[in-house]
Amino acid sequence: MNGNSGYKILAVDDSPVNLGIINSVLSKEDYIVFTAENGPKAREIAEREVPDLILLDIMMPEEDGFEVITQLKTNPKTSGISVIFITGVSEIDAKVKGFALGAVDYILKPFHPKEVLARVQIHLKLSAATNSLIKAQAQKLKQVKKAQKELLILPKSLPEANFGVSFNSLHEAGGDFYDVLPISKNIFGYCVADFSGHDLSTSYLTASMKALLKQNCTHLFQPQESIKMINEVLVEILPEGKYLTSVYARLNRRSRQLTIISAGHPPALFIPFNGEPQFIKLEGDILGMFKDAVFGCKTMQVNSKDRIFLYSDGLIEKSNSVWTKGLDALMHFSKETTKHHISQAPEIIKELMFKDNKGPEDDVVIVGIEV
Amino acid sequence: MDLKEYADNLGLDEEDFKELTILFIDTTINDIEKLKKAIKNQDVKSCREASHSIKGASGNLGFMDIWEAASKCEKASEENQFEVIEENIIIIETLTKKLNELI
Predict the structure, then answer these.
(1) What is the mean pLDDT of chain A?
(2) How high is the ipTM of this complex?
(3) How sure is the predictor about A201, in pLDDT bands with cuts at 50, 70 and 90?
(4) Which element (helix H / strand E) includes A213?
(5) Domain boundaries defined on chain B
(6) What is the CATH class of B3-102?
């Protein structure tokens, strides 16, 4: 380790010469440089030092760079660290794979030390800008003295999103929320969230969440990145011990690609037009509690007329079915609604789920999406 | 070209560059031994790894003639052309000795 400036860089390469070059050029600029000649050592240093940036070789014996980044991204302590691949592999597939696994950039060998320095500097700047954006967003939301109730979007106001909704808010401080976002012409985001705690008014939380979704669920960011940034702001603004669960679905109607992100939320229900329904069960931390939270993520190909249902736990906990049977009942009743238009399906599901009693005793939201 | 020119091209201090060159020579001698052993055992994977190691380090230090020979070794490893690897090992050894004289 050399230097004494603020930024820490970890270089990972099985070649001691390459590590020496990187160390030499970055140390000269007062970066604190750590080096590792293999994956396990890199992961150990990353977890201990939490560097600002990692320069990672792909082709290493035993544990290659793809394996290293995969493990880094699943560890809450290291998942937020920017990784630049530095490699002699120039094939397009390797590049795409690296980006898909969460790399922010590529440097091809042979590299010029000045290029390494320039790329390190630009990615540190980007990282700093993102952090300051998150802080600025948090600050803006903190300044809201009295939140205003946002209008919840209705299917008829966004027919291209092809969705239906059933929303029952029984309590003034009820915690359910949903939103549908047009991200681009063919890409839509659908979110259901369930707030806990009563320190902030529901309207404030709803407005905050709506604003955060709009700010962060854009074409520029992958769904996981969007939810991660939203989480970082929520960690700043929510009182200690308060949190929310959420499920976010991003559907590209052109490529028919669906990505589901779960933050401690009940599983989304997927009903293929031709096939057996299934719950998309994902492990994931809750939102607003941990800065380095990790969220469950699944990307899948879907087909025309397939349906996805997002809902709050009030649907499966408070129905006439006992809790353990709530999911079975939901799957059963959802299948029965396939003959109905998607705009009507959520309301019918709610009625079927509560047909034997007076209705839900808690907030319930169901969002149905048809591809 | 002397060491200072190489160092200047990369924007590194001459002393740092000298240290890196010594390290390069040591690791390359080691890699050449690995290559020779791998040829003897007809071990394509080890040939490729050792060639890749020399290629990466030489290219980054600006020793492009060594880089070229190592690139040929790496390609030949993928095509099982052990005689091509042997020819290029001789080139790498000669160039590495010349480098050693510069220090």
Answers:
(1) 85
(2) 0.89
(3) low
(4) helix A202-216
(5) 3-102
(6) mainly alpha
